[in-house]
């Protein structure tokens, strides 16, 4: 038995989760009806007869289609054929147009084919059969995760019983897969060959919808405004120097907004280390998602071994970095509000307190929703584009719940921009924060500490009771858990405001914890949980309840040490100016990165080989792309909207003293409070 076979289901779940989601978008990203309506058995027969007479054309269809996946014994069950070659087939016949159609089918190995014995064909050696069975025997131990995918393995007596191969076939557009395979290859019914069709693609099957036109018009309008505003700004400042410049006309000026964006001057009391922490946290998010956004791997067994090894914990523990953003958000809410408002003024200006946060987040969030619902579907294509089309369909169906910050409770499994579950929780906690801030700003330190302590204890107690009652697993990767338990973990624990609030609240109370030990413990404590032998529900519940407050505890001490001069070279590293720009772009990068990464990965024409070195190289490409797109969105959209909103909300009370944190540092992953 090969031990690494035990871990197949984890990586395959991560790779193919998008492909198993079905959404109810009114206008789907890929119009399957185009392929269904084109099926014409009579015309198909005519075209098949033509293909049979044209050897080169027949070879094109066969070459672009069905073949056995390479590396089955390393866990690869997918062969994607030649997508672009298939859809590129176009031959004008006398009375019809012959076009290629690309389909992906699932072929179960648990079937008996009535293949006649051919002369000269000897039986496979019994030792070879036993060797193959031994390679797959470990599948029994991971059948729970496999059923989540629709049954790669089950508890049948044969380890190959429910193994499904996913292979591509290329057929004429007018044909069903059965009619084409029967005619071009062999009579599948006669041999007892069984398969199920997963999807088919035809040329030009991504129709333009209202969201596409809105995106093109709106972005073009912003581009024109930016051009006019920039020309005006430059003309007034450098040519017509005596003319009084009107700031409203320079609102979309790339020159002025670029200067503001690249100005890294800070005040004497700025928390410079926060920029480094935020930037590094965003980089860790990108690294983690680089490893999990691939649709398939050519060697998933090797990937599972790496992800579950001590050396791979820096990858598998990357999800904890989201709690870094919660911690910083809780810190900055208190740090900036305390220098601006009293408890009484907070209540008097509560509507402005909320509007400031919501309006500052809206431009980038709305841009991300619009792009994911429209143009991201058009930037590329590939044999498994359904990974991207699923994201598009989600945004076309559930854009409203994301813009209302309700997505973690309103159909969380169908969230538009899936990673914004974090944003929803942050907004919900921000809405609740005045309940504690009032006492903190009232001037009484005893009341402030009492309010913080009571809130933290109540939240932590409620979360602990909830975790013990629900009996969640303690990791996104839990080999011995049923698929419904993993779904409950994701949608009832991982994106739940109650269970994720402790980092937001806990920083203020526990500033004096031992950061190094705590942060290391949080990362390496996940190692035993990742092993198949782990089965300890009480420790799972305790882990879920306290591991995130422990992370906030370590970060709290790190920030405290940096501010008070105890961190030495760590503070120097985190305060480098190189982190300023990534920190300012971090919010836009967070909103935009996942869709961009999925678009790149869904364009792959063959499963990539898993290796940490190769994926880190790919991470650099993802980082560069996301950084550039985020910079453009911030420069052209967020920056002018921020100035406009400040002018509209001029009723916000003036600060009594110079803020201790620069405006950009008062952002949760990039936003002012």
UniProtKB/TrEMBL annotation:
It holds the Pfam family NRF. The keyword Transmembrane helix applies. The chain crosses the membrane at residues 213-236, 313-338, 420-441, 447-469, 504-530, 550-575, 587-610, 622-645. InterPro entries: Acyl_transf_3_dom, Nose-resist-to-fluoxetine_N, O2_lipid_transport_reg. Keywords: Membrane, Signal, Transmembrane, Transmembrane helix. This is Nose resistant-to-fluoxetine protein N-terminal domain-containing protein. It comes from the Eukaryota. The lineage of its organism: Eukaryota, Metazoa, Ecdysozoa, Arthropoda, Hexapoda. Residues 1-19 form the signal peptide. Residues 41-202 form the Nose resistant-to-fluoxetine protein N-terminal domain.
